[in-house]
Design a protein that fits this description.
244 residues, alpha+beta, Nuclear Transport Factor 2, Chain: A, five-stranded antiparallel sheet, 8 helices
Length: 244
């Protein structure tokens, strides 16, 4: 397809070519159409036209043609940086999570299996309730029973503490014929870690004088005990009456 430059060259060539004389050249054969002489074009004009047809039109190029290439270049630069930042962030989160989990494992609340070990919690409650009822009960007629209970259920500081707490009862029991009975009404395991435990104990006590004038008094008691496991049983190691 001819371009504008091709038409200009053609008009210029026609303007400079002299007119052919009439009758010049070979006469056409009768009955055949007259041959039309082709209009030759200079080689440089053809090459110029081809160059014009194939060369890109810089004047008509859009100023945004380089935008996709620029965006691709920026993507190649920023994508590794983003991935590196994400890697660092994930590493920091992993370190924080590990430190937090370690801190939670080290907290005393996490070591207190009274919150999770229901079977062991029930066991220590039952054994200590039985021990408290035995060691804090006293019958003037059979003082040896109290002594056996003390040797069976007490250890450590609790031995002397128990002796001091029942000193007045032992002294007055023969004369007043005292019978002291203690029954645990409620208990709670405050702390349980392996073979150690601390319990808060609520108990009802009745003190009966069986002499000439029989009289019974009642009182409620609240105290805490530290317990340790020895073999298959739990022993009271310390008694805290919350007094100073």
């Amino acid at each position: 397809m001819s371009t504008t430059r091709h038409l200009v060259n053609r008009r210029r060539r026609l303007a400079t070519t002299p007119s052919r004389p009439a009758g010049a050249g070979t006469e056409p054969v009768y009955g055949q159409p007259e041959a039309v002489e082709a209009d030759p074009e200079p080689a440089d004009s053809i090459e110029s036209d081809a160059a014009d047809d194939t060369a890109p039109d810089d004047a008509g190029a859009s100023p945004t043609d380089g935008a996709p290439r620029a965006r691709a270049a920026r993507l190649r630069i920023t994508l590794p940086a983003v991935l590196c930042a994400l890697t660092v962030l994930l590493g920091a989160v992993a370190v924080w999570a590990f430190a937090s989990a370690s801190g939670l494992r080290d907290e005393p609340a996490r070591q207190n299996t009274a919150l999770t070990d229901i079977g062991r919690t029930s066991e220590v409650k039952g054994r200590i309730s039985e021990a408290v009822g035995a060691v804090f009960s006293y019958d003037y007629a059979s003082p040896a029973r109290s002594d056996r209970a003390a040797s069976t259920y007490l250890t450590g500081r609790a031995v002397q503490q128990h002796e001091d707490m029942l000193a007045d009862v032992r002294e007055q029991a023969p004369e007043q014929k005292l019978v002291l009975t203690t029954a645990v009404t409620e208990s709670g395991v405050e702390f349980l870690d392996g073979d150690r435990a601390r319990l808060l104990v609520f108990a009802d006590q009745s003190n009966t004088r069986t002499g000439k004038d029989e009289e019974t008094t009642y009182a409620a008691a609240m105290f805490a005990v530290d317990a340790v496991r020895r073999g298959d049983t739990w022993l009271i190691a310390a008694i805290d009456t919350f007094t100073r």
